[in-house]
Known about the structure:
Helix content: 25-40%
Order of helices and strands: EEEHHEHEHEEH
CATH topology: Glutaredoxin
Strand content: 15-25%
Structural class: alpha/beta
Number of strands: 7
CATH architecture: 3-Layer(aba) Sandwich
CATH class: Alpha Beta
GO molecular function, one term: thioredoxin peroxidase activity
Strand order of the largest sheet: 5-4-3-6-7
InterPro entries: AhpC/TSA, Peroxiredoxin_BCP/PrxQ, Thioredoxin-like_sf, Thioredoxin_domain
Largest sheet: 5 strands, mixed
Keywords: Antioxidant, Disulfide bond, Oxidoreductase, Peroxidase, Redox-active center
Distance between the termini: 25 Å
Radius of gyration: 14 Å
Number of domains: 1
Pfam families: AhpC-TSA (PF00578)
Amino acid sequence: MLESGDPAPEITATNQYGEEITPTFEEPTVVYFYPKDFTGGCTIEANDFQDVLPQYREAGITVYGISMDDVDSHAEFADEEGILFDLLADPDGAVAEAFGLDTAEGHTDRRTFVLANGEIFATYNPELADPAGHAREVLNDTRNEFITGG
């Protein structure tokens, strides 16, 4: 798995609107991987990020959610849950593997990466905690580091 200080991977994936996205990871960016659309913890986590999305945007931090679900599943999930940030489809696991995540079981574990200036700044293992509150923790850490100068 990629760790702090590693170069950001080059990725391209399709979002829930069918648009191809290729992040540069130069500006502060949060990439969170989750196992599956419409599951309990994943829904809580997505809603948690959505709830604080205005603060992420105000701070200039982009958020991407990624799972191995396809574009249609992401579109339905985003519509049902009111998710306004990009959910990137990774059905073949190429994006997850670029971040060093295991895809052998057809999904990834929940894992969050903060990237900026073309490299990994921080990683989080939200599997170890309740998904509620995770988005705010990442926001506060990222905002403190990049907006207020750490």
